[in-house]
Design a protein that fits this description.
Strand order of the largest sheet: 1-2
Strand content: 5-15%
Helix content: 25-40%
Number of strands: 4
Shape: rod-shaped
Distance between the termini: 100 Å
Radius of gyration: 43 Å
Amino acid sequence: MALAILAGNGHGVPLPAKQEARRRLKVVHCRPAAPAADFRPGAAQAPLRLTRRGRVVLVVLPVFAAALAVLVAWSALMAPAKAGGEAVGPGAVETVTVQPGQSLWSIAEGRVPDQDPRVTISQIRQLNDLESTRVLPGEQIVVPLAR
């Protein structure tokens, strides 16, 4: 450690003679300049220090990732449960040609009288990939059979 003796007010400005007499010399301990960082392989490195924010991130990030993974797994397992109603098998349908004046409602009531027409219409729309309930005369549609 090097010693430096400073006279004056410590800022390099000399004091007036009267004040200089009262002032004592200050002894200041100076540290040598820090050596440049050594990046050679195998050189000792200072241990990693984490701030409070860093520790919070290291805890919260894995917890968030685990919760997200559980949510994705749960939604994948519950996806089949979303399908409602009874599924119509491939052998339980027939092709019908729409006649003038017919609608999906009248076809649903005529083909499956023991079921709510709204359910049958929904099945017809799903089987034929229809975006609306409008059908044109002469159009051929697949209709579920009565059970």
